[in-house]
Structure formats: structure tokens, C-alpha cells
Amino acid sequence: MFEYQLKKSTRRKTVAIKVHNKKVTVYAPQFVSNKQIEKWLFNKQAWVRAQLTKQLYITDTRQYPLRDKQVLIFDRAVNIEFKQDVKSEVIKCDNNLLITHSSRVKNLGQKYQQLLEEYLKEQLTAYIEMRLAYFCEKMGEELPMRLKIAIYKRKWGSCNSKRELTFNLHLIGAPYHAIDYVIVHELAHLRHLNHSKAFWQHVERFFPDYKAPSKWLKQNSMGLQWVF
Ligand SMILES: [Zn+2]
What we know:
InterPro entries: UTP_pyrophosphatase-like, YgjP-like_metallopeptidase. This protein is an alpha/beta fold and 228 residues long. It is built from six helices and ten strands, in the order E-E-E-H-H-E-E-E-E-H-E-E-E-H-H-H. It folds into three domains: 5-56, no CATH class; 69-119, no CATH class; 122-224, 2-Layer Sandwich (Zincin-like).
């Protein structure tokens, strides 16, 4: 199920769960048996897991090593391990991401964030560059003048009249299909710098199924953001 610490007390009258610092604590009255608690917790699994997942993205810089973390990469949960080695680098192996840092690193939390973000940016840039070339050709557009990937709070992408395109780094966690939609959306802005009917018709022409990924992104925007 999940690991937890059980704290029983004679004064308590109800059972309660607390998820804090990625740890689960269960408070229960003395008279409730461990078996009853287990049974009760069984039904709370989904909730506890959701709380833990939320907290996975929160890095406590005082904690070391920063273990048992996960990040979404193209809609797949990848485990992250952070440890000291001869140099700072990121190595991907199957479903694991090993982030190493040298012994000279002072601020581990900051280094961890920097290495992880650089890695994710590289992955997203490579994918977007490839798909931009594909969709530009399909849509009869020249390649954009500039491509920028950064963390934004309120947008997945943007496009301006200088043909500069930006994409939110948090898109890295989305499925390919949703990223493709954002690319087509921004490319469509090269012709229509608004969200007019003509704009949406243009999007639909090259990405007929645009409503599903657009809805998916709206519903999952919180889950795609990570906080250090
Ligand atoms: Zn738009």
C-alpha cells in the first residue's frame, strides 16, 4: 500500500492521516486495532498517493540526498536519483534519471534544479525543433526566427509578429499529441495574431483533433508544473 508511521493515543477519537514532507503519519485512537486501520487506509490510498505525488515535486534543499523523486517526461513518470560523483551530469537509463554532482557543489538544491531543468529543456527543444520543421512544411510556413523555451506560469506558448515562438518548459510532461497541438496553435498565430474564428479554422485544418489536447492541457496544467 504505502509506508506510514502510526501514532496512537488514548485522547484521540477519530482516525486521521497527515501527509507532510513526503511522509505519511496516521493518528488513531488507542482502541482501534491495527487491522481496522489498515482496512480504513486501504480506501484512502488514492488520496494519499495524490498528496505524495504533489509533494514529490517539492525539493527541500536542506534534505540530502534528494531521493525518491519523479518527473514526467513526455507523459511518462521517470524516477530521479541525485548523488555525488566525480562530475555534474545527467544520465538517462530506461525509466531512471541519474543526476550527479561533484563534491565541490555548495547549494545542492539549486544544482539539482539547474541540472534537471537543463536536461528537460534539451529534451523538449529537440522534440519541438523536429516537429516545428514537420508542421511548418505542412502548413506552408517558413521556420520561425527564434525559438525560446522557458518556464511560464500562465501560458503554454506564444508567438509574436517578429515570428518568435516561445514554449513552456512544463510541456515536457505532456503527451506528444498535446505538444504537437501547442506547436500548431502557435504556428497558426503566424497568420492570425488573435483567437478569431479564422484562427481556429486554420488550426483545425492542420490539427483536426485539436479540442481533446486543448482540454487535456487545461485539466492537467497543475500536474505538469513542478515546484522546487
Ligand atoms: Zn493562442
